[in-house]
Putative potassium channel protein
Amino acid sequence: MLPRVRSLVRKGGEPAEPLTERPLYALVGVVTMPKLKRSPVQAITRRIVGAIVALVLTSTLVYFDRDGYSNSTDAPLTYLDCLYYATVSLSTTGYGDIAPLTPFARATNIFIITPLRVMFFILLIGTTLEVLTETSRQAWRIQRWRQQVRNHTIVVGYGTKGRTAVDAMIGDGVRPSEIVVVDTEQSVLDHAQTRGLVTVHGSATRSDVLKLAGAPHAAAIVVATNRDDSAVLATLTARELAPRAKIVASIREAENTHLLKQSGADSVVVSSETAGRLLGIATTTPNVVEMIEDLLTPEVGFAIAERPVARDEVGGSPRQLRDIVLGVVREGRLTRVDDPSVGTVEKNDRLLYIRRAHDDRRQ
């Protein structure tokens, strides 16, 4: 079955121009960095201040070189004249046969008409300039992010399962900037962006999309697609790009578990069976389901976590430690705490235990 899956990936074909080879400006909209939060008032104020600074600087330069300028009266230029000249020059007004001559008229142009004209420019072309500036800023941020991203987590699919997985990771202390969401639906990516997540628009079954998400440098990849065949193809592609990453995949049908394992998934969660078990338990012992939900919600109550063995715990029994230990991970293999083979904990073991939600100990 595995060779067949590989052939399906190849038949899907790669685009003529891989995303990773496109120029940065062409990646804006494919990769989206979280937007910096700025109020409209701050943006407009910054533009107005910049215009005033340019106006003062120009008029000062003209004033220092005032002997090089002439006017219709042949009188020496005053600073007001220079300021007026800078005003009509920067605003591209260019008065011809009709020009204000009195100081009051010129002051009116400087302090009333010009601010109105600047406000007009802001309303007329401000949005266009902002879009161009934002595009350049996004391209620069994408370049910097691609150079620096390491040991992050990629979430493939931002449906119900993907959002819940992100909630669990953030609740367990993972920063949003360390999570990259890959999906084909722009609407769900927009929702992810509001949470401060980096997003990549495209199908995770394509290697260039996963490369753009930084898969070769990822520490973990969560496959939470809505279809089992997509999960298999995405997992296979991810494993080829990230041989050392931990890949966790979710599927609907248990019969497809072996396909995920063959494709390279380290852990497989069968969503339909897990939900079914909880439903069955809830009919007789609903409190058990409530406790399980508590354990699976890291930001409140209790949570199941993993940590290294402390120095003073080496040689002790895992059932007599200060934490409630459920299992011991030794050489990559998880063993229940009641197994005789883990009578004592060793230096390189890791403990699967129950911790309080606000416990600061991390993995």
